[in-house]
Amino acid sequence: MTRKDKWGNPVSHGSADAVARLERATELLACYQTDPVAELDAALAEHPDLVLGHAMRGAIMATTTDKAFEGEAAKSLLAAESLARHANDRELGHIAALRAWHQGDYEQALEQWGRVAIANPRDLPAIQFAHLGDFFLGYSSMLRDRIARVLPHWDASVPGRGYVLSMHAFGLEESGDYAQAEETARTAIALNGKDGWGVHAVAHVMEMQGRAREGAAFLQDSAEVWAPGCLFSFHNFWHQALFHMDQNDFKSALRLFDERISAGNFGQALELVDGSALLWRLSVLGQDVGYRWKDQADKWETRIEDGIYAFNDMHAMMAFVGADRREARAALIASVERVAAGNHGTNVMMTREVGLPAVKGIDAFGRGDYRAALDLMLPVRGKASRFGGSHAQRDVFSWTLTEAAIRAGDRALAETLAAERLALKPDSPLNRDWRARARDLAAPKAA
């Protein structure tokens, strides 16, 4: 017997209870509230033949970009594939996407989820997994356009419309349409104040526009609504820390690290990325972050050989530099070189084109070889989107390069990089300090 969920999507399972549990898990995931996996596990305990439950569970695990969850993703994939003969076309599409991701073909996974969403434009999991994949691969325009495809099917009468608006808002922001992005995100938040992705989109807009004081206040004032139960509250607080750093308020940034960002004890790679990214930015500016690097480095060391996502590798190197783990640095470079020499998988391309020079550049910066860091990282900064993340996250390239140019004594380059930053955020005290430091360098000698 085939049923339809409340969005009109076909579900091959005949149990009304199973469909209701899928709906609850879908909304928890869309709102990034705890705990969609627990909801799916409960559903599968009662209905082990719920094929879409297995496929969704596997996709959640897979899109953590953390090999620590690979075993669980594989288990869910095998369970879903064992039930494929009973699955409908929608469910088969989900299984195909999960299989492609598991095999390292992230691009094909996005194509599969995208096709499912075209055929079923109210399939919220397919839309969301494709959206996450677009983020991890740095597909800025697809973060916007893939959601725009389905928006006509999500009018005010459709439950969960706000979640789709939040995704569209983030895509609009990453595509540079800041006014429309903020308007759309605030509409989504008005529908559900616990929508962490909508809050996230507003934070990104304010980050890109240099509205640091306003951004810090926005996140602080709204946290009591969105933060409890939010699966990625650490990331929104990371944004708040960036706002504080942009105002040269490093103490507040470190306090957020201790109280909000590291409070989850960094159980997965996504948390470790934010922790390393924040500590690196502070350390590059000469701020003493003390003992905090040790925990980061300890957890990244267990992931040296993962070779699953180049973006992670760059942040692992930051921790190894910060904690002065020389053996770990050498081991990571060797591991990343092996990935780059491969011939299969999306991450091979990401590593070869951006990940490897980024990892080596961070290592060179840590050795005090700032000229080498510049030579390695400058050529790939313009194509850094190829290894994923957001504009705000990839700003670590400009951040590191600006400081490297100053430390290398390259006044012309340092002034150039500082000018770039000030063009985007002319009122930033941090960027003004960089310009002043660049101008204090000795003038280049005439040829």
TrEMBL record:
<dbReference type="InterPro" id="IPR011990">
    <property type="entry name" value="TPR-like_helical_dom_sf"/>
</dbReference>
<keyword id="KW-0677">Repeat</keyword>
<dbReference type="InterPro" id="IPR033891">
    <property type="entry name" value="TTC38"/>
</dbReference>
<keyword id="KW-0802">TPR repeat</keyword>
<comment type="similarity">
    <text>Belongs to the TTC38 family.</text>
</comment>
<protein>
    <recommendedName>
        <fullName>Tetratricopeptide repeat protein 38</fullName>
    </recommendedName>
</protein>
